[in-house]
């Protein structure tokens, strides 16, 4: 079963940060038809605006399912689904994360909406939280010119990159990258300390997709924590300055920034190579 981790930064200006992943409450779906369980990977959706929603499917043994086709419908209660039926788009290129599927949906009002998935005649449901506005930096806003780690300057972080080996996207500070006049992909993620099956691999997936755009797009990876989490007290680990500046409530998040320095799009949570490549090419 996928887990959810909540992180509270200590000190002034602390924010709650939730790792991407389906949870036992409310994200874990019920067992509907025997053998099918729906898990919500997207923590929440914004009311009245199109949202990319991500799901995974499991059987009763908690083995991941790769459906040939899946449809989704939404409704106000667990047994009443009133929206048009939409076809999910299935992706199998997020390894080592499980196969997943996405839909684009505009949901309202604020509160809880139920989703029902159908696969080969079987059904499973799960709730989705609908919120007034997505927290933090959103498309249309300028990317804050935050000082981030670069050679010779850790920018106050105990560990610049928790990937092993470290990724190559810490060679220029974000504020300096914004002055280069080219599009940017800015990824907020912590490979070593994400505790779900769906948020850990996004950095490696972006590394696989990056050659498609070459040096036409700049890349910056930002760690979530200022210091290494130790023991069970992860909730007391302070967040990195950039994460605070972005006002994020969940991670990982991929920001697509135009050459003008404004955020063009953001991809929350799990994505595979196909979606990462599409997102990068959209900047060109």
Description:
- By secondary structure, the chain is mainly beta.
- It has a domain at 21-131: Immunoglobulin-like, CATH 2.60.40.
- The chain is 10% helix and 29% strand.
- It has four helices and 16 strands.
- A five-stranded mixed sheet has the order 4-11-10-6-7, with no helix packed on it. A four-stranded antiparallel sheet has the order 3-5-9-8, with no helix packed on it. The chain has a four-stranded mixed sheet with strand order 13-12-15-16, with no helix packed on it.
- α2 packs across α4 (273-282).
- It is globular and about 55 Å long.
Shape-level CATH architecture of the domain at 21-131: Sandwich
Beta-strand portion reads: 25-35%
Structural class: mainly beta
Could you name the CATH topology of the domain at 21-131?
A: Immunoglobulin-like
CATH class call of the domain at 21-131: Mainly Beta
Give the helices and strands, then pairings.
Elements: E1 6-8, E2 16-19, E3 37-40, E4 44-46, E5 50-58, E6 71-75, E7 86-87, E8 89-91, E9 100-106, E10 111-119, E11 122-131, H1 174-177, E12 184-188, H2 202-209, E13 218-222, H3 241-246, E14 250-251, E15 253-257, E16 263-268, H4 273-282
Parallel strand pairs: 2-14, 4-11, 12-13
Antiparallel strand pairs: 1-2, 3-5, 5-9, 6-7, 6-10, 8-9, 10-11, 12-15, 15-16
Helix pairs in contact: 2-4
């Amino acid at each position: 079963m996928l887990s959810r981790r909540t992180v509270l930064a200590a000190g002034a200006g602390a924010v709650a940060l939730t790792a991407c992943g389906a949870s036992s409450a409310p994200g874990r779906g019920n067992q509907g038809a025997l053998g099918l369980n729906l898990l919500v990977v997207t923590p929440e959706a914004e009311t009245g605006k199109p949202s990319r929603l991500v799901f995974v499917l499991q059987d009763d043994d908690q083995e991941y399912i790769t459906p040939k086709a899946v449809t989704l419908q939404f409704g106000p209660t667990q047994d009443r689904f009133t929206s048009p039926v939409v076809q999910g788009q299935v992706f199998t290129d997020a390894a080592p994360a499980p196969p997943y599927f996405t839909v684009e949906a505009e949901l309202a009002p604020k509160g809880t909406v139920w989703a029902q998935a159908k696969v080969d005649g079987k059904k499973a449901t799960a709730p989705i939280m609908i919120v007034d506005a997505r927290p933090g930096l959103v498309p249309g806003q300028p990317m804050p010119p935050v000082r981030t780690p670069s050679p010779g300057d850790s920018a106050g972080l105990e560990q610049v990159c928790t990937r092993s080996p470290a990724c190559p996207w810490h060679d220029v500070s974000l504020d300096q990258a914004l002055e280069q006049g080219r599009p940017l992909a800015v990824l907020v993620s912590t490979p070593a300390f994400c505790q779900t099956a769906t948020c850990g691999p996004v950095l490696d997936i972006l590394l696989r997709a990056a050659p498609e755009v070459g040096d036409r797009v700049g890349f910056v990876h930002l760690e979530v924590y200022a210091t290494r989490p130790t023991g069970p007290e992860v909730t007391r680990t302070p967040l990195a300055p950039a994460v605070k500046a972005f006002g994020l409530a969940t991670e990982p998040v991929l920001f697509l920034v135009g050459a003008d320095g404004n955020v063009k799009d953001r991809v929350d949570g799990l994505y595979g190579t196909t979606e990462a490549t599409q997102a990068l090419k959209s900047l060109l």
